[in-house]
Amino acid sequence: MKENGIDQIDSQIHYKSLVRQAWDKYQEGNYSEMEKALKQSLEFSPYITTETISNWITNFTQFASEHNYKFDTDLFTESTNWNNLISFSLFESKTQEDKYIQPFYLWSSQAERSLTDKAQWITLLIEPETIYKLEGQTASKQLDASKKALIQIQFLDRLQQLIPSPYQGLSNSNKLGSFIYLPVNSQNLSPFNIQLCTPAAAKYVKLGFRSWYSKTPVVLASQLKLEQKSKLVFIPKFKPPEVQPNSNLIIATLLDSFSEACFKYEANIVPVDKSNWKQQFEHWQPSFFFAESIWRGNNGEWMGAMTKYKEKKNNPLREILNFCKQKGIKTVFWNKEDPPNFDLFIDAAQDFDYIFTVDENCIDAYQKTCGHNQVYSLPFAAQPYIHNPGGKPKELKEICFAGSWFANKHPDRRELLPILLDPALYRGLHIFDRMLHENRDDYRFPEKYQQAIVGTLDLEQVLMAYRSYKVFLNVNTVTNSPTMFSRRVFELLACGTPVISTKSLGVQKLLGDFVKITHSYTETNEHIDVLLNDEEVRQKLAHTGYRYVHENHTYKHRLEYILRKLQIKDKSLLTQPLVSVVAATNRPEYLENCLENYTRQKYTHKELLLVLNNNSYNLEEVRQKVSSLPNVKVFQVNEEKTLGECLNLGVDNSRGDYIAKFDDDDLYGSHFLGDMILAFSYTNAAIVGKQTYYGYLEDCEKLVIRFPGREHRYTNLVSGGTMVIKRKVFEQVRFPYKPFGTDTAFLKSCVESKLKIWSSDKYNFVQKRKLDTSYHTWKINEAEYIKNSIIVGKRLDISTLMI
User: Fold this and answer.
1) Whose CA is closest to 541, among 549, 384, 430?
2) Distance of alpha carbon 489 from alpha carbon 485, whole angstroms
3) Model pLDDT, residue 94
4) Most buried of 118, 350, 690, 746 (most Cβ within 10 A)?
């Protein structure tokens, strides 16, 4: 405290008088005089500077309440000469260089501060959506000093109104509100390093330091430092769809939240309850019991049931397994924690009938220990309903890593992380720290990564983060397993997000070139360069990776594999629906193109309904021509019939679950049908088509992308030549009998009937146009066609479009 020739009591009186004078000037609107009085009060303040500023705010708030006068905190803190008043800034940065403020020291460093059972409060101005680090030390002579001190925490908005808790990363109780314990060690000083994440509307934080039922004094043994580390990045929650499962199968389950969220779309799962599991089995009559290696299981109810399987004498899990044996219900164990936690779960595994492991290398060990050969590998996978490209924001962020740092375990992983993260640090890297709120040094990222940490994510935010970045980084703890690696690699690819990963035998074996593997800083840097700077390469990698996972590595595939091994006869989950391709042509010169488009399709469960709409065709010759092709029917109608009549004829004679309309003059890549059918597996669309697609103007040799940026979303309009339609749609809507505009009118009727339309990807289709509009039923000139397009080339290079 600055005495300035006046004793302490007089100093305090003078200080209070000046603060009151500043308030009077504030009420008068004389802000320059207000600032002058506040600046003068610093000379007589009984507090250090930072405490003084908080005291000003507290006093002004009290004066405002007494006089029923609104206190505009923004005006108070953002007035013209405010920064001249204090030697540091706690307020919104004006430039990019000022983004990270200097550390803010609380209380004097000259003396220890004893804590009592009454909170000692301090109010600070803060930035919203920001990560702060609070550092200090505590001390106590008490032997058992754990949880004997804490900080109560309140966030206030700009009007100093309390923002309701809970707050991210903080505990909550009715008595204390939001709080966090301070470490107290009776032997030595206990340093603490606490992360605080401020809410979106926060302008102030109130910190209340107190002891908590402590028999001996607890002291703050050092000056406290509050430091802004980085800005939070807000990731909204992805809302998983509520749909009926893909099968009628009933399975009793003991799963963690991640696996439950994935398997629930494939079967009717019944999470077993610890207290009434027997009633559940008797009521639901499940086909089998499926349990994975759980730490907590079914919302924490089963903690320790597996990891302490033998120790728990009255273990309900053992009772379930015995019950299943008596009733002839097959039991399945899936260890997703192999190989590092093989020993932890092996006791439980031995009592199951079938064992599945994420690591193929562990099969021999299970067979030897368990004495049977009903042991199989079962890698992670993706769930199409939640892992798909739908819901991507228009603007993608750059690079993301979501994970943890382990200072005291997984040394190989720790050595690999800098190879992965360092090249991305200056390329827009965002780190979502899974252990952000653990406040433990052994989980804390090194200092060089702190400014890249932008928060932590819950499950539904993870799903949205997968869709929000151009590139995701992945590190593998297990590197030599042919089947075990992070589940997020499957999930990211399924969302259409490219992945750069450290080495992994499993990634290379199961996913190959769809993942970019790095072994060095240089390789990571090269991968980042390509994926951030070459949009075409990145988008193609994203699309092919998405397709590969959805076609080969979903939880539908995994469940079907389990059923085969259990010899449970159920309608296969992987049955391909029949797709009926309907192609109408009135131009003999395009007949060959129609047939090539059909035969080119790699999708095998298909049929072709070819409708000849020209009297000059020789029907028998055409039928002879297609006789060697599987599942082709040819019809001929009078050339006076409209396109709609031709299409309806094809639909009426088709057998497929889906109807694909092919135009005779357009080009369809080999993956066209397969890609379109994939979209039905994760949407509730009645029609899937392409609103963004390639177009080629033959006469002027221009390759364009029509309506760019409208992929993977619901819409009201798609290109007519790309429509794949659920059969049941035709119970409500038929193709109209119109000479022109058939497709547009059909889609309009579908929208009016509340049928949903999904725009898929832009690949594997090219709409070909001639300047002479008489060749087309859709009349549009070149200028109008290009108006909603971007020109991407002068020639038709099929290899870049048909991927």
Assistant:
1) 549
2) 8
3) 32
4) 690
Is there a contact between 153 and 167 (Cβ–Cβ < 8 Å)? yes
Nearest to residue 221, comparing CAs of 134, 140, 105? 140
Question: Which tokens go with 94?
Answer: 């004006």
What superfamily does domain 397-553 belong to in CATH?
Answer: Glycogen Phosphorylase B; (3.40.50.2000)
The CA distance from 469 to 80, in Å, is 40
CA distance 529 to 30: 56
Residues 752 and 281: their CA atoms lie apart, in Å, by: 46
241: pLDDT strictly greater than 90: yes
Answer yes or no: same fold for 397-553 and 579-801: no
pLDDT of residue 120: 87
Determine if residue 380 is left, alpha or beta; phi over 0 gives left, psi from -120 to 50 gives alpha, anything else beta.
beta
The mean pLDDT of the chain is 88
- CA angle 517–522–525, rounded 5-degree value: 75
Which one, of 208, 199, 204, lies nearest residue 122 by Cα?
A: 208
Three-class DSSP category at 512: helix
**What is residue 776's DSSP assignment?**
-
In what side-by-side order are the strands of the sheet with 789-793? 667-668, 765-769, 693-697, 702-706, 789-793
**Rounded Cα–Cα distance for residues 92 and 744 (Å):** 52
pLDDT at site 343: 92
Give domain limits for the chain: 8-85, 96-231, 250-377, 397-553, 579-801
Pick 392 or 800 by higher pLDDT. Answer: 392
Give CA–CA dist 505/308, Å, rounded. 32
pLDDT of 221 reads 76
Of 245-259, 278-292, 296-310, 320-334, the poorest mean pLDDT is in 296-310
Residue 18 sits at φ, ψ, to 5 deg, of -70, -40
Strands (DSSP E) along 716-794, which ranges? 724-726, 757-759, 765-769, 789-793
Alpha-helix runs per DSSP H in 656-795: 672-680, 742-752, 782-787
How, if at all, do strands 765-769 and 579-585 pair?
Answer: unpaired
Fold of 579-801: Spore Coat Polysaccharide Biosynthesis Protein SpsA; Chain A (3.90.550)
Tell me the one-letter amino acid at 450.
Q
Pairing, β 204-211 against β 149-156: antiparallel
pTM of the model: 0.83
pLDDT tens per residue across span 676-721:
999 999 999 999 999 999 999 987 888 999 999 999 999 999 999 9
> What is the spatial distance between Cα 483 and Cα 375, in angstroms, rounded to a whole number?
14
Name the pairing type of β-strands 218-220 and 130-140.
antiparallel
Residue 237's φ and ψ, nearest 5 degrees, are -85, 140
pLDDT digits (tens, 9 = 90+) for 183-197: 876 666 778 888 899
Q: Which of 50, 11, 53 is nearest to 35 (CA)?
A: 53
Greater confidence, 61 or 555?
A: 555
What was the pLDDT predicted at 45?
74
Q: Does domain 96-231 have CATH number 2.60.120.260?
A: yes
For 402-426, what is the HEC assignment? EECCCCCCCHHHHHHHHHHHHHHCC
Q: Note the CATH architecture for domain 250-377.
A: 3-Layer(aba) Sandwich (3.40)
Residues 714, 685 contacting (CB under 8 angstroms): yes
pLDDT of residue 787: 85
Residue among 670, 678, 662 at smallest CA distance from 767 = 662
**How many Å apart are CA 86 and CA 581, to the nearest integer?**
75
What token pair was written down for 259? Answer: 């696996």
CA quadruple 569, 573, 574, 576: dihedral positive or negative? positive
Identify the three-state secondary structure at position 360: helix
Element (H, E) at 366: helix 363-370
Q: Rounded mean pLDDT of 791-801?
A: 85
Distance of CA 522 to the CA centre of its chain: 28
Token pair 């949009």 in the structure block, residue: 535
Would you give the distance in Å from CA 181 to the centre of its chain?
31
